[in-house]
Amino acid sequence: MQRHRSGGHGAALRFRTAGIALLAVHLLFVGWITLRPLDVPWVSPANLHPLAGIRADLSLGWREGAWRIGEGLALLAPLGVLLPLAGGRLQVSVWGSLVRTVAAGALISLGIELLQTGVPGQVVDVDSLLLNTVGVAVAHLAVVPALRARLRRWTERAPLPVEEPAQGRTPTISRVGIAP
Question: Source organism's superkingdom (predicted)?
């Protein structure tokens, strides 16, 4: 008798499909925001000094600085949830998932920053790379472990159908010797 979970695999496939679709929509949105040309009279130089842009944002005042830093954290933060959801695995190490997700988020952010070098009006900023990566990590830690635990509990509650053999035991054929 073989037991299998019919609800677990189907649910994981549905979550994975939804994750891939939402990930594609989010990346298109991020690309539209960050890679469209801007008509500006002048462009500030690229910021290649870590934390210099964050200090400059905070010098504008608490409210304006917090708003700009929040924008940097929030831009790619959904990737912290959507990348593991698109992966579709429920039984995975929390730290391994965090490392993979943050590394993927950092690479996506780096790719966006490198693509911005060729877009008129857009400026490379190393602080946005840092903020985007921290946003991915915070979103992942805040949502994914609890979501995976809940999904594991939900898929474990699925009924366990028992497969019955269709015909019973396979018959054996006796060997007949060759006549002399």
Answer: Bacteria
